[in-house]
């Protein structure tokens, strides 16, 4: 008897859920700049505490430098603030593979693709150029005002001396003062190695993108200062708040497109902006614009409108001089300090501002002083062939100190001291000149800044 053959076992295909209409796109993850790091598109940012730790390593000096100091360096007064990386991770590969896309009609009832119905001509590998989709727009053409400013920057020290030479500020019309102020700001930028701001806000604004929405307030200062800041940091929006009428040479220059001017009735008026609005507040004339009793209110208002992590930066020159002799002290006390105190202005604004910033809760307050000679130092110049350049450098520092001093305190100079019968300023007095050169008397340019933490 022939045995009946056994039927082969039926092998059932496991249940496979049907695929969606479109397969999910899976990207390969190229590594970013950090080794073995996951790739994402979120900016790499530091917390306020991490940035503060970076700042702790900075070397700041809170005393005067020698008059012979030519420029600021990390060994005397101002150090380069840390560069805070705020860019995006960049992919190391410019392409990502996308698998075949299967049409839903090609899937059989068992969940497996039907080979005979696949349209391979329509399902081909696709290479996606990641950078092509993210190509940056070409940069806009340079601002006309920035081009004019760059011409001044490239003119050299001798040209700076010629344009900053002693011409009493009181004899300049607004247009002439605007022009001279531009040269002074270029000279100050040379003094601080190409930086208009000395706080870490410089790096924040320098590397800002338009979409970051950075905002800066220039508080109670010449309109030229706001223009220069706006031109040097083009991806931030600048607002200049002033209680004075603004005059600028419309025929010579066009205002930077990222700069706006806002009028306020008085310097004691509340700053017309909401809380946590600005990334940076800058002022260079507070010592002669705001009375001593109003300084606290202005600094408190600045703290209010700053965003957490924002910076306040102040520049000032005290009316008193460093290493001044008796003749110079008497001249300044009788003709500048007495009128200032009568009008309730501080005779030592740099110290008062520093203490107020600490008392009001500004974080990581820094204070740096730059010594600027009141007269060219009477010593033999270097015989190495650079004597002319060294003399120009000394004169630039002298003229910068005089410009800022006169711009701040010219309004307090008592009537009768400007005219043909008497010297307009103490540096025109031969007795003061001889004493200052003997004592190495200097201006004290003070730069202070602090941060809002919350």
Automatic annotation (TrEMBL):
UniProt GO molecular function? S-adenosylmethionine-dependent methyltransferase activity
Domain Methyltransferase type per the UniProt entry, residue ranges = 267-312
Q: Where is the composition biased (Polar residues)?
A: 71-92
Query: Known InterPro entries for this protein?
Result: Methyltransf_11, SAM-dependent_MTases_sf
Transmembrane segments annotated in the record for this chain: none
Q: Name one Pfam family in it.
A: Methyltransf_11
- Region: Disordered; residue ranges are 68-92
Q: Which residues form a coiled coil?
A: none
Record-given protein name: Methyltransferase type 11 domain-containing protein
């Amino acid at each position: 008897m022939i045995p009946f053959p056994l039927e082969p076992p039926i092998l059932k295909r496991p249940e496979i859920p049907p695929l969606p209409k479109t397969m999910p796109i899976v990207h390969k993850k190229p590594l970013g700049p950090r080794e073995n790091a996951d790739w994402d598109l979120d900016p790499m940012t530091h917390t306020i505490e991490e940035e503060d730790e970076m700042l702790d390593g900075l070397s700041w000096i809170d005393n005067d430098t020698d008059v012979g100091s030519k420029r600021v360096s990390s060994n005397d007064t101002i150090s380069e603030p840390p560069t805070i990386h705020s860019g995006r991770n960049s992919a190391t590969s410019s392409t990502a593979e996308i698998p075949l896309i299967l049409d839903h009609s090609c899937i059989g009832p068992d969940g497996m693709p039907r080979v005979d119905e696949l349209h391979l001509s329509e399902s081909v590998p696709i290479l996606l150029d990641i950078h092509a989709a993210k190509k940056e727009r070409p940069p806009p053409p340079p601002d006309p005002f920035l081009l004019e400013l760059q011409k001044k920057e490239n003119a050299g020290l001798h040209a700076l001396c010629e344009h900053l030479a002693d011409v009493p500020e009181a004899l300049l019309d607004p247009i002439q003062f605007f022009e001279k102020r531009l040269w002074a700001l270029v000279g100050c930028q040379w003094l601080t190695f190409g930086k208009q701001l000395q706080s870490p806000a410089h790096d924040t604004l320098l590397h800002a993108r338009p979409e970051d929405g950075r905002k800066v307030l220039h508080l109670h200062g010449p309109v030229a200062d706001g223009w220069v800041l706006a031109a040097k940091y083009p991806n931030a929006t600048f607002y200049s708040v002033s209680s004075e009428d603004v005059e600028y040479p419309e025929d010579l220059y066009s205002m930077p497109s990222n700069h706006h001017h806002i009028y306020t009735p008085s310097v004691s008026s509340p700053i017309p902006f909401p809380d946590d609005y600005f990334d940076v507040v800058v002022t260079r004339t507070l010592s002669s614009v705001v009375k001593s009793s109003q300084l606290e209110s202005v600094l408190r208002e600045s703290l209010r409108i700053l965003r957490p992590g924002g910076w306040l930066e102040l520049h000032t020159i005290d009316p008193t001089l460093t290493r001044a002799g008796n003749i110079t002290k008497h001249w300044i006390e009788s003709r500048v300090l007495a009128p200032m105190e009568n009008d309730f202005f501080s005779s030592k604004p740099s110290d008062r501002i520093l203490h107020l910033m600490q008392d009001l809760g500004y974080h990581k307050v820094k204070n740096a002083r730059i010594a600027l000679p009141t007269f060219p130092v009477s010593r033999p110049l270097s015989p190495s062939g650079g004597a002319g350049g060294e003399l120009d450098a000394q004169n630039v520092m002298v003229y910068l100190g005089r410009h800022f001093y006169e711009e701040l305190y010219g309004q307090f100079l008592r009537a009768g001291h400007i005219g043909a019968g008497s010297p307009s300023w103490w540096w025109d007095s031969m007795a003061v000149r001889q004493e200052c050169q003997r004592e190495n008397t200097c201006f004290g340019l003070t730069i202070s800044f602090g941060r809002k933490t919350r």
